[in-house]
Please model this.
Amino acid sequence: KALSENYPGGRIAFIARMNEKAKELHLLDTQFADETGLDDDGNFTTARDLTRLASESMGNPTLSRIVSIKTIEVWDESGTISHVLNNLNKLLGIGGINGVKTGTTKGAGEVLIASATRDGHTIISVVLGSQDRFSDSRQLIDWAFAQYQFVPPDLLSTSLQ
Model:
C-alpha cells in the first residue's frame, strides 16, 4: 500500500500500471481493482497467469534470490535494531523447491506458487483453494518430475521433422 500511495499519480495510477503490466506479461485472465490483490470482487487471476508471473519473477536474479531465503536477519540503518524474517514456505530446500509465494485469503483458501529445480530443470506449480498447500504442492511437483521426460531442444526439433 505504501508503494501505491507514493507512486506518481497516486493509488489509481498505480493500480492502472499494475493492470498494464499484467497485459504486458500476457496475464490475460488477471485484473486488479486495488493495490493489494486480496479478496475483492474486482481482483481475479488464474493458475495459468500465476504460473506465467512466477516464471517471469524467477527470471529476475534479485527476486529469485529473495524468495529462496528461509530466514534472514535485517537491521536498521544505524545497526541497532534488528528483525528476523522467516519465509512462510515450509518447502524451501526440500526436493529442489526454491520459491515462490505463499498466501491465504478467505476467497482463495490456502495458496502456494512453488518453483522446484532438479537436474537443471525447473517446474512451477500453482495450488489454489487447498486445505494443505504444502502437501498438495509437494505431491504435484514430485508427480510432474516423475511423469515428464525433459528433452534437449536440439533433439526436440529433429524429432518433429
